[in-house]
């Protein structure tokens, strides 16, 4: 065999290895992002129109949130927010629309105290999706209902349930029937 054929074979083999490595890395990235973001991954693909752009956006969110210090709540903050949430729920019977507005405000306050950037709604939802990917769609749905202004009582009830799911996640625990924190 001539030297040029040997060089050509080596170059082809190297290119095949590089191509395979790139493909494996891309699949691993997709797998990692799908596992981390769950349903938010599918939503991002729909929103951005391609998996590659969605993956880039989700990776960018992750990098952005790695620079932000999200802090746990103190016991006093936890108790105060929990008490306020109970008032929101009690108020739903007499004023469903007002209760939803209070729930939105309370969730935003918890996010702020924890250290989430409080920019426009879509950026807040993106930021939340990094740490709470399984409830971010609930947050978007609740916000949409709250903004609609003409929602039925059942829609408002569903919005309150959605806000509650995010609220529970933000409080970093699930509540027992006695209202205490289960760790």
Descriptive keywords:
Four Helix Bundle (Hemerythrin (Met), subunit A); 2% strand; 183 residues; elongated; 2 domains; 76% helix
What would you note in describing this structure?
The protein is mostly helical. It has two domains: 64 residues; 108 residues, Four Helix Bundle (Hemerythrin (Met), subunit A). The chain is 76% helix and 2% strand. The longest helix has 35 residues. The radius of gyration is 23 Å and the shape is elongated.
Report the β-strand fraction as a percent range.
Answer: under 5%
β-strand number: 2
SSE topology string: HHHHHHHHEE
Q: Any idea of the CATH class of the largest domain?
A: Mainly Alpha
Shape: elongated
Q: Judging by the overall fold, what is the CATH architecture of the largest domain?
A: Up-down Bundle
Number of domains: 2
Euclidean distance between termini CA atoms: 70 Å
Q: What helical percentage do the residues reach? A: over 70%
How can the largest sheet be summarized? 2 strands, antiparallel
Q: Radius of gyration, Cα only, in angstroms?
A: 23 Å
Which regions contain 5 or more consecutive residues with pLDDT less than 50? 174-183
| Derived structural class | mainly alpha
User: How would you state the average pLDDT, rounded?
Assistant: 88
| The CATH topology of the largest domain | Four Helix Bundle (Hemerythrin (Met), subunit A)
> Taking strands numbered 1, 2, ... along the chain, how are they ordered across the largest sheet?
1-2
């Amino acid at each position: 065999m001539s030297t040029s054929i040997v060089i050509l074979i080596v170059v082809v083999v190297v290119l095949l290895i590089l191509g395979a490595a790139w493909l494996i890395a891309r699949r691993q990235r997709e797998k990692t992002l799908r596992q981390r973001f769950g349903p938010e991954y599918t939503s991002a693909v729909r929103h951005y129109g391609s998996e590659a752009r969605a993956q880039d956006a989700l990776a960018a969110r992750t990098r952005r949130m790695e620079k932000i210090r999200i802090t746990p709540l103190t016991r006093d903050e936890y108790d105060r927010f929990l008490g306020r949430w109970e008032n929101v729920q009690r108020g739903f019977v007499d004023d469903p629309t007002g209760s939803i507005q209070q729930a939105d405000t309370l969730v935003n306050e918890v996010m702020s105290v924890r250290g989430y950037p409080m920019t426009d709604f879509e950026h807040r939802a993106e930021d939340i999706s990094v740490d709470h990917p399984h409830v971010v769609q609930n947050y978007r749905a609740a916000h949409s209902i709250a903004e609609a202004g003409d929602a039925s009582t059942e829609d408002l009830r569903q919005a309150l349930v959605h806000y509650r799911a995010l609220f529970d996640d933000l409080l970093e625990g699930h509540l027992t029937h006695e209202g205490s924190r289960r760790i």
